[in-house]
Batch of 2 targets.
Target 1
Amino acid sequence: MISFTGKLLVCDMDGTLLNSKREISDENKTALFDFVKRGGRFSVATGRDEVSVGRYLKELPVNLPVIVYNGAAIFDYSINRTVWHKYLDHGVYPLLTDLMMTFQDLGVEIYQENNIFVLKENTATKAQIKRDFFVPCYAPMEKIPFPWKKIILAWEPERLSSVEAFLRDKHPPYRFFYSQPDFIEILNPEASKGAALEELSVKNGFSPESIIAMGDNMNDLEMLQYAGTGIAVANAHPELLAAVNWRCGHHDSSAVAQVIRWLDNGDI
């Protein structure tokens, strides 16, 4: 068996590491624990917060800090604190106010320290609350303390496209992107999974060439481009599939285990 010492594997969670039931397959678990046992370093990069990621830690051999909030922060569970961040400040007020006035039924969530505030509920936000088991907080926008980690705009995809067009016309000084078909996220312009991965790798002595990154959506693009080996799962967004050189199996077919087999066989 070859050693994986010097290799860093970073996986997106939803749609990549997790299957359609939001579970980690036994095959993925076994492969990941073997990867780490043989010297590899493993982390995740996700839009989830540190509490949500923490629910999976007993099933994962994470041995580095993790990238959370789609690259707005890096959280170290070994010391239980954020070690790097790029958050939103008061400058986002006018944009968010304009969005809420223009799109009366738009769902709006603000991720703040240890809390998720729901400014406006709709079908998409209610579905997320049920799916992710979080307890929402409610307060007027001006009462929510800064810094804000990210904003989620939630709506049916066919209606959210008009919000995307609005944002493109406005050219706001913020990063915005789809993290799933019914979510557009707004982040600090310097926040991305790619920027966070660069920070994580430099602090831990990894060159881009030693990094394998996996993802499924356009919010993973910078991360896959930074890694020496960027891999899109078969169920990935078509634009992501077109932008990378490596493709693996579907997230419902233990894609992470497949990639570790490729590493073991020297195929990548």
Note: The CA atoms of residues 65 and 200 lie 8 Å apart.
Target 2
Amino acid sequence: MKKFPEAFSLEDNQRVILEFEKLLEQRGLKIPINSPLEKASLTILEMIEVRKDKTVHNQTIDCRESWRQAFSLADVARKTLNAQQHPDFDKLLLHLKLLLEPGDFSQFSASSISASAKDKETNNKIFELFAGVILFQICSNLRFDHPHSSKGDNPDVIGEFKTKKWAFACKTSHTENPKTFLERVREGVAQIEKEKVDRGIVVINLKNLIPHNEIWSARQDDQTGAWEYAAYLNRDAPVTLIRALFRNFEQDVYALVGSRQAFVNEFSGKKAIPLVLMFYCTVAGFTPKIGIVVPMVIKQMTGIGLPFEHLDLEAREIVDLFNDHLHDRTM
């Protein structure tokens, strides 16, 4: 029987980042000072120390983005540790090496508007890494598109699931324009079609469409300069808000092509299954007790296209497994 995803503690997030750093060092990858990994570890450590009254939190700084960064890297670290025994693990080392460079690697927050094209591309590659460490739990004989020399015309991950070879085209949408989303989908379908595989799935990260600071609002006191963070009493409340946002986006995409069926027809005769997986995640405040605000990861995967129940059995199985491992569910 499957367990629901765990609500990981700060201590567990700190532990997996430290173990992840050791894993990288064992592979000859030294963690630079002030790297994103070091900053994430220090951010979570500070949260633990503040909770234990061992240090004083600087209330004049809005910490929401640094918390999103830290929890995102902890999530990647946890999934990577789960994948380290896979025979193909070392094939992902070039992607893991990206985490040692300066940059914004968060998959739980939007890319900065001022980010350069190179920084956005690196962030996109981290999403490929994120999908890759999930697929280690599902597929065998995995191979990955090169993170530096890729021409952008190949699927990002290829692996075997049971008796067939599957390709996964991982994309990130950087605008709310449904036309741009449709372009990314068509790119993914074309990449899968030209590859020598049996089937494929387009996976799109829509983190840039989430109004992260609205989902987790905060205000700075005019007199003291202290930041106060809003919090939800119910864990499902922010999930409901984000689902509504993406249902509206889904309808905009269908309207652009004419109908849901017209979107499904984009996959007619193609190797890609007629369901695009859409990933979105953020962090929000939660109040387990009155007067206490704790960060809460909100992670969701949904689909656009053919209803899930209308997919063939093999496609449903691989989508289900992807969703389970995305949410850290176990048997």
Note: The longest helix spans residues 236-257.
